[in-house]
Design brief:
CATH superfamily: Resolvase, N-terminal catalytic domain
Distance between the termini: 34 Å
Organism: Nocardia aurea
Protein name: Resolvase/invertase-type recombinase catalytic domain-containing protein
Number of domains: 1
Strand order of the largest sheet: 2-1-3-4
CATH topology: Rossmann fold
Number of strands: 4
Number of helices: 5
Radius of gyration: 14 Å
Order of helices and strands: EHHEHEHEH
Structural class: alpha/beta
């Protein structure tokens, strides 16, 4: 059985491209042999509700992977990005994947340069 991975998107950063971002996260999941389960959308108010729901779902499902379009989706809230990432690691032993870094890694591998 494939390990589950959950997406997390701040709607204010998606700028109307939520579906495309979700497709990119799902594609990354498949490429890494993970099962893309669902995306949690943080409202434009950024109150952290979706993040709390994501953390609870990771624990409930015993899942340990989260994908975001970029680490910017953890920034701009009342809690700094590094603390949110550390909370995922501590509360759910979760690894964070980013679509932008995966594309960079694939480009480096394909071209042999950075």
């Amino acid at each position: 059985m494939e390990a589950l991975i959950y997406g997390y998107v701040r709607d204010d950063l998606a700028e109307g491209h939520g579906e495309e971002l979700e497709d990119a996260m799902s594609t990354l999941a498949r490429a890494e042999g993970l099962c893309f389960a669902a995306t949690f959308h943080e409202s434009t108010s950024g109150d952290g509700t979706a993040f709390a729901e994501l953390t609870a779902e990771l624990r409930r499902a015993d899942a340990h992977h989260v994908v975001v379009p970029s680490l910017d989706h953890f920034a701009g809230q009342t809690i700094p990005r590094d603390i949110l990432i550390a909370k995922l690691a501590q509360d759910a032993a979760a690894r964070v994947w980013t679509v932008d870094n995966a594309e960079l890694v694939r480009a480096v591998v394909a071209t042999g340069t950075e």
